[in-house]
Design goal:
The chain has 389 residues and is an alpha/beta fold. The chain has 16 helices and 16 strands. Strands 4-5-2-1-7-8-9-10 form an eight-stranded mixed sheet, sandwiched between helices. Strands 13-12-11-14-15-16 form a six-stranded parallel sheet, sandwiched between helices. A two-stranded parallel sheet has the order 3-6. α1 packs across α16, α3 crosses α4 and α9 packs across α14. The longest helix is centred in the N-terminal third of the chain and has 19 residues. The two termini are 16 Å apart.
Length: 389
Amino acid sequence: MTLRVLTLSTLFTDATRPNFGVFVERQTRELASREGVELTVIAPIGIPPRPLSLHPRYRPLAALPAHEQWRGLAVHRPRFPIVPAIGGRWHPALMTRAIRPLVRRLHAEKPFDVIDASFFFPDGPVARRLAADLGIPYSVKARGADIHHWGRDPATADMVRDAADHAAGLLAVSAAMKADMAALGIDPDKIRVHYTGVDLDRFALTDRAQAKAAKGLSGPVIATLGALIPRKGQALVIDALAGLPEATLLLLGDGPDRPALEAQARNLGLAERVHFLGSVPHADLPGWLAASDVMALPSASEGLANAWVEALACGAPLVISEAGGARELVDRPEAGRIVPREAEAIRTAITDLLATPPDPAAVREAARRFTWTANGDTLLAHLKACAGK
């Protein structure tokens, strides 16, 4: 029996943003590869009115095709109007109105069995409205900020809870995320933990000295992988670096905090040891992580960071904060350390791991259960159960 899935995602890769939503795209391709699954992706793109739409951030998005075959997936990219920075509360209504005709047409041609919304806001409230239109069930996945921010913002919290209440089933990236959802009043019995996957063939063990040489590096190397935003805590790692005189810090990612972080590194006399690598293509990450002795990411909040899993798969132990599913991943000494969000605690943990490095093969073992096969198996079983309700 064929399961026809409509995947709804505002977090989905496109030609202009190759790293954006890469894990949603990979999860979707895994599901679509399964026998008996027919899958269509609707990946709405928010564009503000003119003249803001002419900004370099939005102009490339406006030029994307409305429909394309993307890595074997049928992907529709309808536009909907947004109000940047302050308009989040209106996005579900605006998005629903913009994409409803397309969804109705596709459903009339070949009816969907279930909607798979890959992010809780605005995707969840939109899935709620579309599912009511079509008379079919829907599921929503919680990943991090969609619960920690939108689920607590007074302007949007009711929409998040309403989407959860009416869903046939819910997914959470970690058990910790499930607990956070339950704390908002969401029924925990509806929530299934759905871990991310990692490509263990690409993110693999290699000789670290050779990996460093290939990148022109030597000595201890610390990587911090994530968007340059305050929540990720790169400033704390730079402060910690001041007490690690032989180490080099790689910042993989970009974002609005970059000028402040660059100034911080200069003011501390660390500019030559802090390398801002920008938004590194996902395909290039294994080489940088393989060259790293430690991956440090003291986030204020997370679901279960994909960067954690990728670093472990490359044999790099973690220094991370007590955020999200940290303890579900750092469940053995070889996987690294969980520390307070304080520079001194971060420095001490890194020093310890550099002085007595764990066997990279033992580090990698902590990531072995995070496979795309397991991810796809769980998602398929979940959506089949939702479709049956």
